[in-house]
Amino acid sequence: MDILLVLTILVVIFALAFDFINGFHDTANAIATSVSTRALSPRKAVLLAAIMNFVGALTFTGVAKTITKDIVDPFALSNGSVIILAALLAAITWNLITWYYGIPSSSSHALIGSIAGAAISAAGFAILNYEGFLKILQALLISPFIALAVGFLMMSLFKVLFKNASLYKTNKRFRIFQIGTAALQAFTHGTNDAQKAMGIITMALIAANLQTTTDIPLWVRIAAATAMGLGTSVGGYKIIKTVGGKIMKIRPVNGAAADLSSAMIIFGATTIALPVSTTHVISSAIMGVGSAQRVKGVKWGVARKIVITWIITLPISALLAALFYQLLNLIF
């Protein structure tokens, strides 16, 4: 069998593995608040998230096209299949490490940093599409701050609207409302995060001369959506524990405010075809909600550890990808 075809098949397998891991790693963030407030049992929340992720993943392709063409030009890649495979191996490695320790790091940062690191290792810094790459970095960096602000404003609004309401009745109603916000959260996660593996597979098809455009094939969309749905069904209870309880004590009204805020930011990014970190956005929205409730109620020590992981993910994944590329280049 032709070595290029073998590499392409390996890329497809590892890209779907990345989506599967992303499913149980990042989707845990989307349902963490609804589980922690007991609006949904973990089993029902995971099932709901799996279905909504699958639907969301099939609905959009803009983010996938951005991943395909805006970090590096797939038509200009020499040894492109090895570069992409190295990037996937690095991103998967970092995702598994952070999942094992229950740290809600960003799969988006890991993948984007890995693509850049592997490409630079292969062809130097000139290979990067700086305009597109910087646009993606801006979206990744700015979106958590927007989520923090929107979460603060959303919770402030809820406090005004329900200040005279019975706390018991309000929480009971919001617990029911949270089922809808959890579904919305999982749907928006699918519209953005599942796109990343689709973009990677399309890059590999172009690098192997099996495709001449950046359009996302239907089979790629279905395969990536299925992988993410299956990954979600496995669940990520370690991440749920961190996001759903260690940042702040979450009540149903807080969970609903955080879910609505983060879903707005993620879906807004999807509509303008920009990848964002669902982990960053959801965690930041919870911090914003907690700050509006009571600044001292936010466990800033845990939040600081999460932020540190955000910062180090991109450079570490880039370095891992560079090392993986050099190793794979020796083999192939």
From TrEMBL:
Its main location: membrane. InterPro entries: Phos_transporter. The chain crosses the membrane at residues 46-64, 76-97, 109-128, 140-162, 218-240, 260-287, 307-328. It holds the Pfam family PHO4. One of its GO terms (molecular function) is phosphate transmembrane transporter activity. It is found in: Membrane. GO terms for cellular component: membrane. It is a multi-pass membrane protein. Keywords: Membrane, Transmembrane, Transmembrane helix, Transport. This is Anion permease. It comes from Chryseomicrobium excrementi.
